[in-house]
């Protein structure tokens, strides 16, 4: 396999011109640029297509590998989409994986075709294996096709209450993907986040906090109840999750706790602590103890305590995260513990060093004491990259104080001689900064720098000049010698900045060097035209100053220079020239200003402050991208200031606090009990509602393909589900379980325990009632998994739609449908009607009542159902044979038919002792439903999830007499087995039901409009039934 | 935090040889900003790890002659990305034996599968080598032959369980006929020695690398004779922090195979014994196009162990044209392009100290180099942990068999630099 990618690439490179021409017409429009190259791709692609269509997995795999190779190189492989997507359901895991890779890359570009693959994922979402469910969710949510948003939403919701924490973790990841695809889903996603935040699994914690940060970082209220749990779980969360959680908790803490940094008195003191930091801090500690003005919130303490061990993490990002947390949250006396760990990171890769050093640089400005003990760890090695060297230098400069400056200067001497001139220049600046900051060494530094003026390297000299200039400005008193020395340098130095600096110095202190200054002006006037702009400006400056102090000697020179400047190419210089001339040369036009020219030019100038470039970085949260860039990055979340008064800490109180260990222990227990669990869930399904998937012949190809498979599997499961049929006491069982599942929302671990109890309970029920079902628990894992997955979705639904449950029908239609006319039936007539009762033969069945009447004058014996011709998937529970039916008598029997949520006809033979008649039962779509009660709120929530493809609507005429709420309800109920949803609005009527077979919700909304029209909206996953129902309901209200 | 959007792998000549997108596709042209920054930098080491472009941020690492350039769209802790990229490179190394362009190109499908598993929507998913190896089997010659014949694949056919347990670093069902646990205590001396031979800075950094091949779910505890030596420690996630805090014992359920158990720093109070000394005389004559070079390396007394694997590398000043040297031991090379002198000394015998001596030829007319170059020294000492750290005992719980245990000590030079 290894050769493929490369081999392909080579062939791609050699393009035979004739091939290119042949293939060009088909491909040119899509990629005009890569003309030749691409056309050869096409040729190859034909070949790949064939391989993909081949029946051999090895050929397909080979093709997929080559395609992935193309994707990796950034070549366009999109035209293979149809051929690739066909293999999405491949049995071979590797082919499947590679198809997933392909889908994620191209689905966005080929949305229509991508939809073909959706059903595969939907099916996999119900797989019994948690890893398959998880990966299906992953891929489904990675396909950025807006039309599947509702499907994604549903999948996320289901997965978020999956039993497997791994699936829930993936659900948390999917939240972000869906959010970026459709931000309008925000509200509903927040609900899922809220739920997942309550999750106690360490697997989930990191991912859901990630989603929280992405979707609703401002909803700090969602964290309260989970704060302590997150703190306690933190150590066991995987390292990447730790980083995210720590960052989030840092922000949280800054909004919820009061500052541990200062007592009321010393506000503003915090930035003044420099060398005396340590003692200062101790002082504060004492103050604190005495005044008792501050006691740390125990939750604040909890966070600090639980993050501390993570400083020992091997992951640099985790260490940095804890470090910034301590920096931003801990009392200053405690923040010291992070320095050791940060210094440790300096042993790491250069990139890690770079970021860590930047952060240390910011910290070391404010709190020298933290890093002073580690000064030597910042010593530079000649092998360090320049960027690391300069950062280390920066930190050393920040840490310099009276005690260590001599050591540092010795170290700096080595650096100045470095072959890396950029670094040498930086060192000179550092020396300058030390000199200004520590007055004891100013002279020493200055002397050192003057020595450097004779350095061979121009950059070093130039930098020294600039720094000396700055230093002299701070204390110009007795530095005439240095200035003279520098004036001599002017002949040799060519670096503009340095020349300009020297000129400025001479100008500024021209009165101290009265003999040299005019000479310098003379020299530079000569070279004026060849100088850099920067230097020219300083020559003008020097001229002006000399003109004011020593006009006798320099008047003409200055005039000359000004004339040169007047005709200079640079307008800056022309401007300056004009300005200076007006100012210094008095004439009638110049106003009062020229009197003050001397004062203006030779004013006392404040000495420049030599500051660290990291001075202002501390307003960014440490460890962030924004801090590194020193500019606000997109999506940066500001760290808020401490609140004056802490918000109520009681919001974080939780009734039950159990540790994660317990949870995982329970989980592992339940894992062992897998078969029982499955069994349990199956029984739950049986009791809770009928559920199975539907079949519709009219749906799109892929859809029906999927359905067919499901049908076959549901057939398999029919065995077990029918045999476990509803016993009378299961009704009560159901209600208790519902309660517990409702309560399970409170505490997951409790949930698990209860479930375990239920398992045993339901087990005993069944083993007594039906041994076959419990024995089938090992044998038919297939059927179980099917029903298990269904159950997953169903429990989910029942949990989501908290109060939605099947209710008894309100209205029973009396309409009888004829099944067998007495003429054709040789005296036997048969009618059927839909009782709208939950069917006792099976949850997925519609119960049908058949009335058999003997219109002949002889008794008819042995009436039974003979050969059945059912469409695939459809099942039928026959009525018990009737031994004898007397003349003129009739008998009503009930049977159950699983129509698989379709309006297909169930054909079978009705047999008597002597005859057999072919009969049909065709259900109106309205009878394939079971009413559901739910609150208006739940209705809206569910409706919100069933939008887009899942919504059908029509505008209908409403006859005037039909516009009252009673009539509407009555008529709709007559047409379909719906449950009324209490509505707050007069004009809107809502009905809810679910399909008998699959239990999919069917939401019907009638919204009355002006001029006797109404909007009829149906929301359902079962789009086909939805549209049929819409068609059937349309005439219902318009008829008089 | 949207984390990693895309990843580009770029070789030294600036070819993008692999791209992977976890969200919508970002055009390769975004790398132009990277190339621009690369051009500005003097060398590869100086390319800034974080680059800001108008619409994206580029965070990159440089490993084994490959730039891993990730595209980020929003605020994210840069270390998070950097650490992750290194983890990717580590994984390649682990899978293919080397993290090179050829290895990646040869295994592009595995690389893609790995990247797919390691990140979901730009957020790390599975980064533990134990788990990844269950998901995607590393290539071996035998397997690739078998695969090409049978058409089977590298994708694990059984699904991994480790990801689901609360010990995510260990796979279930490990079985060995020989149960072994080896620990290598490796200490490195970081030091800066100044001209006069006195120590400016010295520190001992250590790691314990483990190779654990034990069946089942062994629970190990490793104790030291002198745990107080360890000043600052960082742990593999498997180690129970609380046990360390209270008892100074490393207690853990190990991952299967090779991994780094801890890294540590020896407290700075302890004086570091420097095992070698260097006598040097390097000088460049004023107004002459030559200089002298004379370096002798010797072992310091009282070590009792042999110093071996000694290599000295020197970055000579730019003005150096060539060097004519004689080595009394080992061999030397001088690369006139990079100006790097490398002297492979080998073992030091105290009776006859290795010496490298000769003439340095300078570019005529160029000014005499300002500074003498620093000497970087590498060495190894077997059977010795220079800090004196000693493993006391290793106990195993949870499994019945008796494992074979071994501890090896080695001391190496870390960043060991002699200024001249």
From TrEMBL, chain A:
Annotated region described as Disordered, given as residue ranges: 1-28, 674-808
Domain Beta-adaptin appendage C-terminal subdomain: 928-1038
Subcellular location: Cytoplasmic vesicle, Clathrin-coated vesicle membrane; Golgi apparatus
Chain intervals with Basic and acidic residues compositional bias: 703-712, 750-761
GO cellular component, as recorded: AP-3 adaptor complex; clathrin adaptor complex; clathrin-coated vesicle membrane; Golgi apparatus
Alphabetical list of InterPro entries matching this protein: AP3_beta (IPR026740), AP3B1/2_C (IPR056314), AP3B_C (IPR029390), AP_beta (IPR026739), ARM-like (IPR011989), ARM-type_fold (IPR016024), B-adaptin_app_sub_C (IPR015151), Clathrin/coatomer_adapt-like_N (IPR002553)
Annotated Low complexity bias: 691-701, 714-729, 762-792
Compositionally skewed regions (Gly residues) per UniProt: 1-12
SMART domains membership: AP3B1_C, B2-adapt-app_C
A Gene Ontology BP annotation from the UniProt entry: intracellular protein transport
Keywords, in A-Z order: Cytoplasmic vesicle, Golgi apparatus, Membrane, Phosphoprotein, Protein transport, Transport
Acyltransferase among keywords: no
Domain AP-3 complex subunit beta C-terminal, residue spans: 761-904
Principal place of residence: membrane
Membrane topology: Peripheral membrane protein
Family, per entry: Belongs to the adaptor complexes large subunit family.
General function of this protein: Subunit of non-clathrin- and clathrin-associated adaptor protein complex 3 (AP-3) that plays a role in protein sorting in the late-Golgi/trans-Golgi network (TGN) and/or endosomes. The AP complexes mediate both the recruitment of clathrin to membranes and the recognition of sorting signals within the cytosolic tails of transmembrane cargo molecules. AP-3 appears to be involved in the sorting of a subset of transmembrane proteins targeted to lysosomes and lysosome-related organelles.
Name the record gives this protein: AP-3 complex subunit beta
Gene name, Swiss-Prot/TrEMBL: AP3B1
UniProtKB/TrEMBL annotation, chain B:
Topology term for the membrane: Peripheral membrane protein
Pfam family, one: Adap_comp_sub
Start and end residues of each MHD domain: 178-419
Keywords: Cytoplasmic vesicle, Golgi apparatus, Membrane, Protein transport, Transport
Cell location: Golgi apparatus; Cytoplasmic vesicle membrane
GO biological process: intracellular protein transport; vesicle-mediated transport
Gene3D superfamilies: 3.30.450.60, Mu homology domain, subdomain B
Listed InterPro entries: Adaptor_comp_med_subunit, AP2_Mu_C_sf, AP_mu_sigma_su, Clathrin_mu, Clathrin_mu_CS, Longin-like_dom_sf, MHD
SUPFAM superfamilies noted in UniProt: Second domain of Mu2 adaptin subunit (ap50) of ap2 adaptor, SNARE-like
Coiled coil location: none
Record's GO cellular component terms: clathrin adaptor complex; cytoplasmic vesicle membrane; Golgi apparatus
Main location: Golgi
Membership in a protein family: Belongs to the adaptor complexes medium subunit family.
Record's function text: Part of the AP-3 complex, an adaptor-related complex which is not clathrin-associated. The complex is associated with the Golgi region as well as more peripheral structures. It facilitates the budding of vesicles from the Golgi membrane and may be directly involved in trafficking to lysosomes.
Protein name per its UniProtKB record: AP-3 complex subunit mu-1
Encoding gene per record: AP3M1
């Amino acid at each position: 396999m290894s050769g493929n990618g490369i081999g392909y690439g080579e062939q791609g490179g050699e393009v035979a011109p004739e091939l290119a021409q042949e293939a060009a017409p088909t491909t040119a429009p899509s990629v005009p640029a890569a003309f030749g190259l691409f056309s050869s791709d096409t040729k190859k692609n034909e070949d790949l297509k064939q391989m993909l269509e081949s029946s051999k997995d090895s050929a397909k795999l080979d093709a997929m590998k080559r395609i992935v190779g193309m994707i990796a190189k950034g070549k366009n492989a999109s035209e293979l989409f149809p051929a690739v997507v066909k293999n999405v359901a491949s049995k071979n895991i590797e082919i499947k994986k590679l198809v997933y890779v392909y889908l994620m890359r191209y689905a966005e570009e080929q949305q229509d075709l991508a939809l073909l693959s959706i059903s595969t994922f939907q099916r996999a979402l119900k797989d019994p294996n948690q890893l398959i469910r998880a990966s299906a969710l992953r891929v489904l949510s990675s396909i950025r096709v807006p039309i599947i948003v509702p499907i994604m939403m549903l999948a996320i919701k289901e997965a978020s209450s999956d039993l497997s924490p791994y699936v829930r973790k993936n659900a948390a990841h999917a939240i972000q993907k869906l959010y970026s695809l459709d931000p309008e889903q925000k509200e509903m996603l927040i609900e899922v986040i809220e739920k997942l935040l309550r999750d106690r699994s360490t697997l989930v914690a990191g991912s859901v906090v990630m989603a929280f940060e992405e979707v609703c970082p401002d909803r700090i209220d969602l964290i309260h109840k989970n704060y302590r749990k997150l703190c306690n779980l933190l150590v066991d969360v995987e390292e990447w999750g730790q980083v995210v959680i720590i960052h989030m908790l840092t922000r949280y803490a800054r909004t919820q706790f009061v500052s541990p940094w200062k007592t009321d008195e010393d506000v503003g003191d915090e930035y003044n602590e420099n060398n005396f930091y340590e003692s200062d801090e101790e002082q504060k500690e004492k103050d604190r103890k005495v005044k008792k003005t501050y006691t740390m919130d125990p939750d604040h303490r909890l966070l600090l305590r639980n993050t501390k061990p993570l400083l020992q993490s091997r992951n640099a990002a985790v260490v940095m995260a804890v470090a910034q947390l301590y920096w931003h949250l801990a009392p200053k006396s405690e923040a010291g513990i992070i320095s050791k760990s940060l210094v440790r990171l300096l042993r790491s890769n250069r990139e890690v060093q770079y970021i860590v050093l930047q952060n240390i640089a910011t910290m070391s400005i404010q709190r020298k004491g933290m890093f002073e003990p580690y000064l030597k760890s910042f010593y530079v090695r000649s092998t360090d990259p320049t960027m690391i060297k300069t950062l280390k230098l920066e930190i050393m400069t920040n840490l310099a104080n009276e005690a260590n400056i001599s050591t540092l200067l010795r170290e700096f001497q080595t650096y100045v001689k470095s072959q890396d001139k950029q670094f040498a220049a930086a060192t000179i600046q550092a020396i300058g900064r030390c000199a200004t900051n520590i007055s004891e060494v100013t002279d020493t530094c200055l002397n050192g720098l003057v020595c450097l003026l004779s350095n061979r390297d121009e950059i070093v000299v130039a930098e020294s000049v600039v720094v000396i200039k700055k230093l002299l400005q701070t204390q110009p008193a007795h530095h005439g010698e240095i200035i003279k020395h520098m004036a001599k340098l002017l002949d040799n130095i060519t670096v503009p900045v340095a020349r300009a600096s020297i000129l400025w110095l001479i100008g500024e202190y021209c009165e101290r060097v009265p003999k040299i200054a005019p000479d310098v002006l003379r020299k530079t006037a000569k070279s004026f035209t060849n100088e850099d702009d920067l230097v020219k400006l300083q020559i003008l400056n020097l001229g002006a100053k000399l003109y004011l102090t020593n006009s006798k000697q320099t008047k003409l020179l200055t005039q000359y220079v000004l004339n040169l400047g007047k005709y200079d190419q640079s307008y800056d210089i022309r401007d300056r020239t004009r300005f200076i001339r007006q100012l210094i040369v008095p004439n009638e036009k110049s106003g009062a200003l020229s009197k003050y020219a001397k004062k203006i030019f030779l004013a006392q100038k404040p000495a420049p402050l030599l500051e660290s470039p990291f001075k202002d970085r501390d307003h960014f949260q440490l460890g962030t991208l924004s801090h590194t860039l020193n500019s606000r990055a997109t999506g940066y979340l500001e760290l808020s200031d401490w609140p004056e008064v802490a918000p109520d800490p009681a919001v974080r109180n939780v009734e039950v606090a159990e540790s994660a260990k317990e949870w995982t222990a329970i989980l592992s227990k339940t894992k062992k009990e897998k078969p029982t669990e499955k069994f349990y869930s199956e029984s739950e399904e049986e009791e809770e509602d009928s559920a199975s998937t539907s079949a519709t012949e009219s749906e799109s190809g892929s859809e029906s393909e999927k359905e067919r498979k499901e049908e076959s599997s549901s057939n398999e499961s029919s065995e077990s589900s029918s045999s476990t049929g509803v016993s009378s006491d299961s009704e009560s069982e159901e209600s208790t379980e519902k309660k517990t599942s409702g309560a399970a929302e409170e505490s997951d671990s409790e949930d698990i325990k209860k479930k375990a109890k239920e398992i045993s309970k339901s087990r005993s029920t069944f083993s007594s009632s039906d041994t076959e079902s419990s024995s089938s628990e090992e044998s038919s894992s297939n059927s179980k998994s099917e029903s298990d997955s269904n159950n997953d979705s169903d429990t989910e639904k029942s949990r989501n739609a908290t109060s939605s449950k099947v209710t008894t029908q309100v209205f029973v239609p009396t309409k009888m449908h004829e099944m067998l006319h007495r003429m054709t039936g040789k005296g036997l007539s048969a009618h059927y009607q839909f009782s709208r009762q939950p069917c006792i033969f099976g949850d997925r069945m519609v119960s049908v009542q058949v009335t058999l009447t003997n219109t002949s004058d002889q008794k008819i014996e042995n009436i039974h159902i003979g050969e059945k011709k059912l469409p695939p998937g459809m099942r039928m529970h026959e009525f018990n044979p009737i031994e004898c039916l007397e003349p003129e008598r009739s008998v009503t029997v009930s049977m159950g038919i699983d129509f698989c949520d379709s309006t297909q006809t169930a054909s079978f033979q009705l047999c008597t002792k002597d005859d057999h008649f072919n009969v049909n039962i065709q259900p109106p779509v309205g009878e394939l439903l079971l009413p559901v009660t739910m609150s208006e709120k739940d209705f809206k929530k569910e409706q919100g999830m069933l939008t887009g493809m899942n919504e059908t609507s029509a505008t209908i005429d409403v006859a005037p007499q039909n516009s009252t709420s009673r009539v509407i309800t009555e008529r709709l109920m007559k047409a379909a087995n719906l449950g009324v949803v209490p509505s707050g609005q007069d004009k809107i009527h809502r009905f809810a039901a679910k399909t008998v077979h699959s239990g999919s919700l069917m939401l019907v909304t009638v919204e009355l409009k002006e001029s006797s029209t109404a909007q009829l909206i149906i929301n359902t996953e079962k789009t086909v039934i939805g549209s049929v129902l819409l068609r059937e309901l349309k005439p219902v209200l318009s008829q008089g | 935090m949207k984390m990693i959007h895309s990843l580009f792998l770029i070789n030294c000549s600036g070819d993008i040889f692999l791209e992977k997108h976890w969200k919508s596709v970002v055009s390769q042209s975004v790398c132009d900003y990277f190339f621009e920054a690369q051009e500005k930098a003097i060398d590869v080491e100086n390319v800034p790890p974080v680059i800001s472009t108008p619409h994206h941020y580029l965070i990159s690492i440089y490993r084994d002659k490959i730039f891993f350039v990730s595209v980020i769209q929003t605020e994210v802790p840069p270390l998070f990305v950097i650490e992750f990229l290194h983890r990717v490179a580590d994984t390649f190394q682990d899978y293919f034996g080397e993290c090179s362009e050829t290895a990646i190109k040869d295994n592009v499908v595995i690389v893609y599968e790995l990247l797919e598993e390691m990140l979901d929507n730009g957020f790390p998913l599975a980064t533990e080598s134990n788990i990844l190896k269950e998901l995607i089997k590393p290539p071996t010659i035998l397997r690739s032959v078998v695969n090409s014949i049978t058409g089977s694949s590298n994708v694990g056919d059984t699904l991994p369980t480790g990801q689901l347990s609360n010990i995510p670093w260990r796979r279930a069902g490990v079985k060995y006929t020989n149960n072994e646990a080896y620990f290598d205590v490796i200490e490195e001396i970081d030091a800066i020695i100044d001209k006069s031979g006195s120590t400016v800075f010295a520190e001992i950094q250590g790691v314990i690398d483990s190779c654990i091949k034990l069946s089942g779910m062994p629970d190990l505890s490793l104790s030291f004779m002198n745990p107080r030596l360890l000043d600052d420690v960082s742990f593999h996630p498997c180690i129970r922090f609380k046990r360390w805090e209270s008892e100074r014992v490393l207690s853990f359920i190990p991952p299967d195979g090779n991994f780094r158990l801890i890294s540590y720093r020896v407290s700075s109070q302890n004086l570091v014994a420097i095992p070698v000394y260097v006598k040097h005389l390097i000088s460049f004559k004023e107004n002459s196009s030559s200089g002298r070079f004379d370096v002798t390396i010797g072992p310091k007394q009282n070590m009792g162990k042999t110093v071996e694997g000694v290599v000295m590398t020197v970055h000579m000043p730019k003005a150096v044209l060539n060097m004519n040297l004689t080595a009394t031991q080992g061999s030397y090379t001088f690369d006139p392009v990079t100006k790097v002198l490398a002297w492979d000394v080998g073992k030091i015998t105290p009776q006859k100290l290795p010496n490298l001596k000769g003439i340095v030829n300078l570019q005529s007319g160029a000014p005499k180099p300002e500074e003498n170059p620093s000497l970087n020294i590498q060495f190894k000492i077997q059977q010795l942990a220079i800090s004196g750290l000693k493993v006391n005992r290793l106990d195993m719980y949870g499994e019945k068999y008796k494992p074979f245990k071994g501890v090896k000590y080695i001391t190496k030079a870390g960043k060991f630099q002699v200024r001249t």
